[in-house]
Task: structure prediction
Amino acid sequence: MTSPDIAAASRPLPGWRVEFGRNWPIVLGCLLGLAAGVLSLPFIMVTFFIKDWESEFGWARGSIALAPVCLFSALAIAAPFAGWPSDRIAAVWLVGVSLVGVALGMYLNSTLTGRLWELLALMTFLGLIGAGSSSLVFSRIINANFSDARGTALGIALIGNGLSQGIAPALLAPYVADHGWALSRCRWLVLLARQSLFPYYAMRSGAYSRQRRPCLPMV
Result:
């Protein structure tokens, strides 16, 4: 090996390569978590089932449009309360509890009986319990574990916001067409439980930084 080769081999890797090599499971977990989080799946639920609700329950579209209002209002109220524990406990636990809550709320969608207040209450519940799976907490995790590659890692993680919009309808459409929206509850439960567990285990498996930052999802 020539001296230039030796010099190149001994040269330290760029910081962003080191960070990605060590923390890529965190990015993957955040991407999957955002794909299964409160800013993604509830919108799929509303847009995917709006025609079924109109035909089965007789709800007007204007009334159904109140559902996102309840979601965002509840999310705005809950966001500060989600930010406070993310500074004090392992954020991976906050994400895990919130994603399980979102999965439960999506499953409860299949139990609607035709009273509009049930849908509005469900969306309010999703906004409150889902605040821990919003961009706030995942951005906190990325910021705590990345420095040189922080922007790139955050950009990759935010792909999850739109990922489920393209995948979930394709997975659910054939089943709903065969069994109806209400009888698709088992498929919702399996899909959402799986999406809730993947981010948790992906982030738990990461080689997290051992800096003493309260928001780090320590293993």
Remarks:
- Residues 37 and 65 are 20 Å apart (CA to CA).
- Residues 15-35 form the longest helix (21 residues).
- Confidence is low (pLDDT under 50) at residues 3-13, 207-219.
- The domain at 26-203 is CATH 1.20.1250.20 (Growth Hormone; Chain: A;).
